Amino acid sequence: xxxxxxxxxxxxxxxxxxxxxxxxxxxxxxxxxxxxxxxxxxxxxxxxxxxxxxxxxxxxxxxxxxxxxxxxxxxxxxxxxxxxxxxxxxxxxxxxxxxxxxxxxxxxxxxxxxxxxxxxxxxxxxxxxxxxxxxxxxxxxxxxxxxxxxxxxxxxxxxxxxxxxxxxxxxxxxxxxxxxxxxxxxxxxxxxxxxxxxxxxxxxxxxxxxxxxxxxxxxxxxxxxxxxxxxxxxxxxxxxxxxxxxxxxxxxxxxxxxxxxxxxxx
Length: 266
Description:
This protein is an alpha+beta fold and 266 residues long. Helix content is 31%, strand content 27%.
């Protein structure tokens, strides 16, 4: 019966991912041990979450190392376990590769620089979770199976040759300092396409393309309805553009356009 559910999905990549999830569920049941996925992005997380709900599976958690993580794994465990038991085993699944930069390089590298270095080493993106960057370096959340490889090889790259690279337990993740930039935008209406146009600083036609490409999430749920009404308190994520919090509606201009106070996560 569970396999038949896969026929409801048309996209090949979706079917492949969900078939893998089903395999892990069955392995958990048959071998009575914990199974887990690769790191998934926001679109995949929503897809898998709905699939698991449809299967009425309850013995699982999604985990990315910290509450606000964008990339997460799904950990599926036997019914004899509970969330507390699984939580104690997370350090056997996920670790941190920490890069501490030398004084002369502090603040130089961005998220893109760290990710580029990882990809250059041949590591697949799905083996890596969020990358927490600060002035001193970065904490790279990874599948434990690749932590030693990364720690051994990142230092061979020129940009990190003078850095200190260590493997840390996930519990020691750097404090995630959420930096925000506050500003105001003016929209003709609170429809999603109008708001996306202003947040992404693009034309309305381009905003529609972004929405249709499933790059927009409202309150962490994929949203493709261009006419959806956005309201104060909504969190909007635009893949490739950032995350935005609709903090407050400040009123209207003389022409009837709406003034929005926005917080962008930077």
